[in-house]
Amino acid sequence: MNTLLRQIRNTSLNINFYSRNFSLFPSRRLKEIQEVQNEKELVISARHVPSGREPYLLKNQHETACAVCASGLDIKHTDVLILSQFVRSDGCMLPKRITGLCSKSQKRISILVAMAQKSGLMPNITPPNSK
Q1: Measured between alpha carbons, how far is 26 from 17 in angstroms, rounded to an integer?
Q2: What are phi and psi of 98, to 5 degrees?
């Protein structure tokens, strides 16, 4: 699979596979449950409810830039809501292929996550025998 992705990246086509948006606030994925009683049937359906936090979602207008570079935000180690979107549940950084960040932003975000973990703002749940 990796060799296939590498071959696709090396072609002259400019395809952006990992365009990932991030938000200043987590978006709500709410569904409204509707119950309709027919003659002998009870039909239960759900429909998506638009989130009130949609205006805060940062959308990537520039296809060639990563989400952090395109937003122009000055992210600090105290911005744990933003940094937590680039961290797995065990406290480790997500890889660059999943985050969709450029090399410069990926390195900067990983340093900021480490700073936030060392200052106690973010949990570091890695096993004690890891590096």
Answers
A1: 23
A2: -90, -40
pLDDT tens-digit readout, 26-65? 556 778 888 989 888 998 888 888 777 666 666 656 667 7
For residue 26 the two structure tokens come to: 């987590």
Q: How far is CA 113 from CA 12, 37, 117, in A?
A: 34, 51, 6
Residue from 102, 17, 21, 100 nearest 59 by CA: 21
Tell me the sheet residues that pair with 47.
32
Residue whose pair of structure tokens reads 């998506």 in the numeric block: 48
Residue with tokens 């060639």: 64
Quote the tokens at residue 6: 């590498």
If DSSP codes are grouped into helix, strand and coil, which group holds residue 56? helix
- The answer to whether the beta carbons of residues 54 and 77 sit under 8 Å apart is no
Taking the model in full, what pTM does it have? 0.55
**What would the pLDDT profile of 72-114 be if each residue is shown by its tens digit?**
889 999 999 899 989 988 888 899 888 888 899 999 999 999 9
Domain ranges of the chain: 18-118
Are 128 and 49 contacting, i.e. CB atoms less than 8 angstroms apart?
Answer: no
Contact of 83 with 119, CB cutoff 8 Å: no
